[in-house]
Every structure is written in structure tokens, then in C-alpha cells.
Amino acid sequence: MQNEIKIFSGTASQYLSEEIAQAYGKPLGEIVLQRFTDGEFQPNILESVRGCFVFFIQSTFAPMENLVELMLMIDAAKRASSDYITAVIPYFGFARQDRKDKPRVSIGSKMVANILAASGANRVMTMDLHAAQIQGFFDIPVDHLDSSPIFLPYLKSLDLENVVFAAPDVGSTNRARTYAIHFHTEMVICDKHRKRANEIASMQVIGEVNGKDVIIIDDIIDTAGTLTNAAKILKEKGAKSVRAVCTHPVLSGGAYERINQSALEELVVCNTIPLKEKSDKIKVLSVAKLFADAIDAIVEHKSISKLFIPKN
Asked: Annotated active-site positions, please?
């Protein structure tokens, strides 16, 4: 007898959870968040989850409450005798804290991995971690989905004649190279030097972009400083057009203003994080079908490798 499947949503990802549940073909489970006058809150699952395969969908972007809510939902299901609990985290917050790069700092992504496992999660499903090796911080299985099957069909539909892919920094080189290989084209690197976090001191382009339609590939766009500076420099180097593909639209600070005033033709993102504002330059693609297919693969004990980058 197969375990019953229950899918629940945290408050931050309700919009996306509804899409995923619809794509999977099952309604969201009932859960409410009780809030106390002092700001404390408590999730309450309103239906039995005993012996069930339970999926909690919640991206852990700011505020910190989103992560805490996910932990409490997992704990509630564990104490209600769920058989197997999967934390579905389309955007995994704290992923940029993946190493000890200076004295006396925490490795936030490792700490969050420990907390999720301690809360009772049996598995984690996420997309485009800032660094793939973060999977090694977990002592439970991690399904690390790739956004390229979402972006590639859209990029092909643009029918650009002279495409070159760009990495906005050295850390994004592998990601940009994957797209370049798929399109059988070249790639360039925008090498940047930072003064401090979110502030760039200098940037230079390694490679030829004159007369090219450049597509910048990255996993996270936060303040948009790196991206808009890269677009400006690429245009100055003779690029015919500059677009950007970024999975997670954190978009903090003056990001929207920078994007609207930038040399970018468009910015294509996923709906792992809801947009705070609308912009004519930002196009959103949904990850719902990909996550629904991944949930089905887990339930049916199938491989998820077929969900990765499509074949030419």
C-alpha cells in the first residue's frame, strides 16, 4: 500500500505552492499559522499526516521568519508521525555563506542544513544553490534541481543570431559554460573585484563580445550592481544586445531602479521568490511544473536526472 501524499505550503511561498500542487494534481493540505500578540507564531496542521509522505514548500528568503516557519512545520509533522518529510525549498537562503572566507564568521548554509535535519526533515529539494558543494553540508538526501530546462526553451524562442554567454564573475563560469555548450557557442567572463559585500571596485571583460547578443547567466540577483555594471561594460565593448538570466530574484536595495535604468534588454528570472515590484524589463518563468515532476519522481522512487538540462 502506497503512502498518502500531502503537500503543504508556508506563508511566503503560497503563490508558488498553489501552482506546484495544481501541476502535481493534488490540492494543498490545510495548515494555519497562529500568531501571538508578541509576534511569536505556531503552525497548526489541520489534517492527519500519520504515515504520510509530506512535502512542505517554503523558500527561505528574508525575513528569517520564513526559515523558522519551515522548521516548525517540519517539527509538527514529525511529532504527528509522518512517515517521510521533504522540505521543498525553491530558494535556499544563506547559501552565499558557504565558506569561512575571513576570521570569526559563521558558515550559515552549513548551520541551516544542520537545523533542517534536526527539525526532522528526511530530504531536501531545492534549485540552483549558490555553490553546488552545499549539498555536502547535508547528511540527508538533497535533490538539487537545475533551472536550465526552464530558461533554455525561452532563450531558443528569442531566435538570436549571434549569441554569446557571459559569466558575471568567475564563480558563475561553470553555469555559463553549460549554456554555451548547449548552444554550441562561446562564453566570456566579467572579472570583478569587490571592495566589500555588494560593492564592486572594478570589472573587466575576458573575451570578445563585439556585435554579439550577450546573455549573462547567474543564480542570484540581489542589488543588481554586478549585473547592471556588467551590462554597461559589455555594451561599451560593442555588444549588440545584453540580456540576463538569473534564477532567484532577491532584488534588494535599489535593484529595481538599477535594472530599469540599465543597458539590459531584459532580465529573465524564476518565481522562486515573489517580485516586490513590477518592471517592464523583468520576465518571470514558473518553476512549478519542474518541482511537481520532481515530487512525483520522489513519490514513485524514480530518477530525477531526466529533469535536468534538455538534450539538443
From this structure: 192
